[in-house]
Amino acid sequence: MTRIARHLLLWLALLTLVLGTSAAAQATPEGTSLVNPRVTAQTVGAGDSAAPPGVRPAGDDTTWPQVTGERLVGSPTTKPCVENIVEDYAFKNTAYGPDENFSGRYQPPKRCPGPWARVVATISVHVTGVQFDRLGDIRLGDTDVFAYSTAEPRGDGAGDVTWTKSKDITDYTYLLMHRQKLSFEIGNVVTGPYDGIFYGSLRLSFYPVDSDNPVPAHTPDRVLPVIREAALSSDTPVAEGEIAVPRDTTSLTADLLVQGHGGCDEFWWADAPPPFPGQCGTPPYREAQVFVDGTLAGIVSPYPYLFTGANGPNWWEPISAPQAMNLRPWRLDLTPFVGMLSDGAKHTLSVSMLDWSAQSGNDFRVNLALLADTSGQGATTGALTSSRAVRHAQIVQEVSATSYHMSAHHQLVTTGWYQVPGGPKVTTRVRQTIDAASRQGSTSGIFDSYDFSQLVHQRTAGDGAKSTLAVSRDGHHARLVNDAAGWVVADDTTSVATRNGRVVAATQRADSMTSKRESGAYVSREVWSWADLSGACGTTRVAGDNGVITKDVETARCVWAPTGLPPSG
User: Fold this and answer.
1) Which of 268, 305, 351, 554 is most exposed, with minimal Cβ within 10 Å?
2) Mean pLDDT, the chain, as a whole number?
3) Rounded to whole angstroms, how far apart are CA atoms 339 and 341?
């Protein structure tokens, strides 16, 4: 019997448990935290391994690497100081106990003091046996700096499934400059036939600064955790936290990570109302909303994640879907609120889902952190002047027993001003827009697209004159197709910023993946490309055939280059 045949038989046997839902949802019942809050204090950093290596189970020596096209964008030329935080830590029953996730005391590397040109977190994981895909993260203090899901091991005696993933965490330099708790987590459950234990290693790479590799200009001055791993459900529809921002704050963004879990909301993008046979009977539209002291401050549609167990793991072997192994947060600009938040008092930030009624066993997980820039020139003054939005997203639907069409649109515009002592009055206007569309047919499949854009426009006023100070535009496009042949997934982002009429930053990233059945085999392809304002660029091409990597090539050839400027108003 072939390996694929054995794998299919295994999944037929498990069908009553899986029910077409990946285990990232199955692992977490309603209202229960994904990770065990109980941790053990250990000392890590400065190259120390703080936990004894895990013992790999005996079995086939074959390894089956899992890959993704997404790579780091560019690289400093300085030699990094590498800190091995932990090696082969065993994640057994770490979701709800009795086993514990890794936790230790992080300390900045003495031989490579910050700030740095770049800091990179890298995880390497291997697992043997039968197991679901699981969720995990790396946390500094109470702030998530790297969220991810795992591969789903094939469980057919073929040996280890292995993968390595890196993320640029330079934006969290403020946290990395201070001693504090560090957590490395995978919420695993070992029970019955699900015997797979994840063994994980974590290292941090610190790239020193020199004349050719400065501290990135966009690195935030402060990072403030607000909401940690909250579960929005029918019992808890709102998550909130209190925060006092620095009094000299001049810009403020929110990193919001929101993920759906459960049979309905992990696959919310496949939903549809009756009479069309949808997943749970609601439109394929979800929207997370951020409020500041009860005023709507940000809107975003959750990313349509496809974890490595989605509709069976063979589709995602050996290439995982875009963002599955790097769950990137949305970055929402809250600068219009700086004037009202910089008063020294505590303010409430909250997150909820628009017009969402959770079904039993479903929830949305939320993490929220603020990133602030400060002036060092004394207390900022100012005010929020307006927050304008249609409270409900405009959703248009056409439904029949054999087809379903939906389009949705929602826009929020916030405006506020601030002023530092002795400086001009700066007015900031932020416009966030969501556009979504879904076309489903009983025989043709699912065709979804979700677009988000954020336009930030700043003007200064002084001596009776107004001038444009800065303009930035961020755009994100996600496309998902699931038909009889398999999957097509696209994930594209563009960011352009100007200051005083000059482009100061521009990046583009494009990720396109297909996973198909061809002559009975699972065949996948991915092309990931990036380019920035400096002219640097790169392309990664990966390919797989029945779980085996057949291509993994990185080149410096540009597929495209950044073009276009954001509008002036």
Assistant:
1) 554
2) 85
3) 6
